[in-house]
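Hey team,

Filing this mostly as a record. A colleague (T.K.) asked me to run one chain through the structure pipeline before their review meeting, and I want the input and output archived in the tracker in case anyone asks later how it was produced. No errors, nothing strange. Just documentation.

Input sequence:
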Amino acid sequence: MSFISILLALLLEQAKPLPQINPVHNTVRNWVRWVLRNFDAGAKPHAWLAWCLAALGPALLVLAMHWLLLWQLGWIAAAVWNVMILYATLGFRQFSHHFTQIRDALLAGDEVAARAALARWKRMDASELPRSEIVRHVIEHSVLSAHRHVFGVFVWYSILAALGLGPAGAVFYRVTEYLAVFAKRPVKPELPPVSDAVRERALRAWEAIDWLPARVTALSFAFVGSFEDAVDSWRRHEAVHPLDNDGVVLAATAGAVNVRLGEEMDSSALTPEPAHLRAVVGLVWRTVVMWMVFLALLSTARLIG
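Output structure:
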C-alpha cells in the first residue's frame, strides 16, 4: 500500500498541485492557533500539553479514519485515504515554482528579477546579494524544502505505515514542522502569543523528530551523488554541529554536487553558479526515483513473503 499510495500521490500532486492557500492547510493552521490560544498558559506542563494536543490531534484523527475505512470498507478505501493524506502533505509544487522563477531569471541574466523573487520567497532583503549568493540561497532553501515537504514525509509515513498506523506519520511530521515554524515566527498582534515554554518545546521536539529524516535524506543524496564527498562533508559538519539537522542535509548536498553552501562549508568546493541549479534538480529527482525503487522492492518482498 505504501508504494502505490506514494506513487499516486506524487503523480496527482504533479498533475494538480494544491494551491499555497488551501482548506487543508488552513484547517491545520487554525487548529494549531486554537490549541495554543486555549492551552498555552506559559508553564512547562502546559507547554507539553499544548504541543501534544496540537501535534497528535490531527495524526490521531487521520489514524482513526484509516482504521475505520480499513475495517468497514477494505484496503482499497484505506489506500484512497492514504493517497488523499499524502497528496495534502507532500509538496514538490508548493515550492518548485519559486525555484523555477528564480532559475529562469538567472539564466536570462536578469539578476534584479531573481533578487526580487528570492526576497518574496524567503522574506529577506536580497537587494545587495551577488549572483553566487542568490544561487546559494536558492539551492539551500530548495533542498531544505524538498527534505521537509518530500523526503521527511517519506520517512515518517513509511515507518508508521509499516507498523499499521497508516498515514499518521506524514501528518505528524508536517504538523510538528509547522509548530516549530509557528513558534519562531515574529510576534504579531493579530496572532495568539507563543510562550517561551511552548517555543522551547516545539523546537526541541522538531529537532528530535527530524533527526532521523535529515540523516536519511543526507544518506540518500550521498547515494545518488558523489558518495565519498557527501559523507565526508556531512561528518565534518556534524562533528562541529551535532544537532544541526538542516546543516547535515546542506553539508551532504554540498558534497554530493561539489558546491559551496552555508557559512562554514568546504572552501575547496565550487562557488555556486546557475549550472548548479540543474545539478540539484537532478539530485532531488534521482533521490525520488531511488526511494520509489526501494519501496517497490519492499512491497514486492512482502507480497512474496
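Quick notes for T.K.: The longest helix spans residues 131-162. Residues 22 and 169 are 21 Å apart (CA to CA).
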